[in-house]
Design a protein that fits this description.
The complex is a heterodimer.
Chain A: E1 6-10, H1 14-25, E2 31-35, H2 51-54, H3 67-73, E3 76-78, E4 83-87, E5 92-95, E6 100-102, E7 105-108, E8 112-114, E9 126-127, H4 132-142, E10 147-151, H5 155-166, E11 170-174, H6 182-199, E12 203-205, E13 210-216, E14 219-225, E15 230-232, E16 235-238, E17 242-244, E18 260-261, E19 267-269, E20 272-274, E21 279-283, E22 288-290, H7 295-309, E23 321-326, E24 329-335, E25 342-349, E26 354-361, E27 364-371, H8 374-384, H9 406-415
Parallel strand pairs in A: 1-2, 1-7, 2-3, 7-20, 9-16, 10-11, 10-16, 11-12, 18-21
Antiparallel strand pairs in A: 4-5, 5-6, 8-17, 13-14, 14-15, 19-20, 21-22, 23-24, 24-27, 25-26, 26-27
Chain B: E1 2-5, H1 15-19, E2 24-26, E3 33-35, H2 45-54, E4 60-63
Antiparallel strand pairs in B: 1-4, 2-3
The chains are: A alpha/beta, B alpha+beta.
């Protein structure tokens, strides 16, 4: 494909911004437009459930780049104007306000929309948390109401519960799992998370099926469980997962199914790519179709998509990574952790609340989890995961590395004990 | 190029260290970023720009 002369990025959050930056870094000088449904310049979402909700940060501090840095980018930002349709043949995106934006290459980075409970829409005091405006509304409501029930025991629900408890609220965390985040980190670490929450005064309701909400006078009064019990609440947060924002692509002919379906290059169709939470792509190394909802994925995938827009053929095969901060605990996860994995503590000690756990499946390392040991966790990741998963054989990430790496690469070739690396100048 | 880091924003992912170990490290006790070279040589500018762009906490600032 020839180098495009115009690129449109639909979604100006972390993934969209990183795509634009990577294009410029790689020398792209053509037109660059970022379109977003929200009215805000690019901001960061992970702090919303923590520093912004607690009030430790002014919302302005979530801005991903300064005004100067955005000016240097040389991109046009079209904000507060949701995309409503895509014409594949002409590569044109239509927006709610009636704009028609055509480009040689289009990047879909529209992210997620939180799921809601039936009956939620008509009740005041019930929140989701995805956007800066969501965080502001939840914080304002929390400052007037003492009792919070969080519905959903995944990463977001657990973080919100921890933050609200830290603010002094009466907090109940209700979810279907046996312990918070069990499906993400396995039963052992989830059990430790549950202990942490309980110690700090969060009331856990594991194994709870939620059947709906109760209200009076248009305001929520509680969360009704499957067994008929009602958990009283002044404020409720619904954190039961989110769906990729792809409804606007219906009828476009683009393959959609739990995300925008892409090949290993993150390409959905000729000249159309997807990045971040919304992208389902083929991970060659894991040999599976994957969609990752985490912050690091958005920026790493953006780099590969930018390269491919400019004519490279890079497959995207990252080591997945996410982190969560709850109370004073930092959990870091590199790789994939299956619930049935064999878990070994390889550094620190669980009793000290400071450890690194290695997750193995069928004898092979698949993931590393750190509890208050971020650096040591990253070192274990490099040791255990940054090689081909199945057999540890070298993976060539860049067959034509930049000039500044030439000396390092020649050194690597020289010291390789199997003489397996060949360098041609 | 001048590099700055915001320790309060840093989440300890170590993405910067994986990309540019000549410029970044992490503290042993809490994993927060340590800036080894605030004015890296020109040969490292591209990789430092990438590190700043992909930092999952937007904790790396660049001037120049």
């Amino acid at each position: 494909m020839n180098t495009p002369s115009s690129v449109l990025v639909v979604g100006a959050s972390a993934g969209g911004l990183a795509t634009a930056e990577a294009l410029r870094r790689k020398g792209y000088q053509g037109d660059l437009t970022l379109l977003d449904a929200e009215p805000h310049l690019p901001y960061d979402r992970p702090p919303l459930s923590k520093q912004v909700l607690s009030g430790a940060w002014d919302p302005e501090r979530t801005r991903l780049r300064s005004a100067e840095a955005l000016a240097t980018l040389g991109a046009e930002f079209v904000l507060a104007d949701p995309a409503v349709g895509l014409d594949l043949a002409t590569r044109t995106v239509h927006t709610a306000s009636g704009r028609a934006l055509r480009a040689d290459a289009i990047v879909l980075a529209t992210g997620l929309r939180p799921r809601r409970l039936p009956g939620q829409a008509g009740l005041a005091g019930v929140h989701v948390l995805r956007t800066l405006d969501d965080a502001a509304a939840l914080r304002a409501d929390l400052l007037t109401g003492a009792r919070l029930v969080v519905v959903g025991d995944g990463v977001l629900g657990a973080e919100i519960a921890a933050t609200a408890r830290g603010m002094g609220h009466d907090v109940t965390l209700a979810g279907p799992q046996r312990a918070p985040m069990a499906s993400q980190v396995g039963p052992t670490v989830a059990g430790l998370l549950g202990e942490l929450h309980t110690e700090r005064g969060v009331r856990l309701r594991p194994g709870a099926g939620v059947s709906g909400l109760t209200g009076r006078g248009g305001r929520v009064t509680g969360v009704r469980l499957d067994n008929g019990e009602v958990l009283p609440a002044d404020v409720v947060v619904v954190a039961i997962g989110a769906d990729p924002v792809t409804g606007w692509l219906a009828g476009s002919g683009l393959p959609v199914g739990n995300g925008v379906v892409c090949d290993s290059r993150c390409r959905a169709a000729a000249g159309i790519y997807a990045v971040g939470d919304v992208a389902r792509w083929h991970h060659d190394r894991l040999d599976t179709s994957l969609r990752l909802e985490n912050r690091t994925n958005a920026t790493e995938q953006a780099g590969v998509v930018a390269a491919n827009i400019l004519g490279e053929e890079q497959a995207y095969a990252p080591v997945p990574y996410f982190w969560t901060d709850q109370f004073d605990t930092k959990v870091q996860v590199h790789g994939t952790l299956s619930a049935d994995a064999e878990v070994t503590i390889v550094d620190g000690a669980v009793a000290d609340r400071r450890f690194v756990a290695l997750y193995r499946r069928a004898g092979r390392a698949t993931g590393v989890l750190g509890w208050n040991m971020p650096k040591q966790t990253r070192l274990r990741r490099q040791e255990a995961l940054d090689q081909r998963d199945e057999d540890g054989i070298v993976v060539l990430l860049d067959s034509d590395p930049p000039a500044e790496l030439a000396a390092d690469v020649e050194q690597a070739a020289m010291v390789c004990p199997a003489l397996a690396i060949t360098v041609e100048r | 190029m001048k590099v700055s880091v915001d320790e309060d924003k840093c989440c300890g992912a170590g993405t910067c260290v994986l990309l540019a170990p000549e410029v970044f490290d992490q503290r042993d006790d809490d994993g927060i970023v340590v800036l080894l070279d605030a004015e890296p040589p020109e040969g490292l500018h591209t990789i430092v720009r990438e590190a700043a762009s992909v930092c999952p906490a937007a904790a790396i600032g660049l001037i120049g």
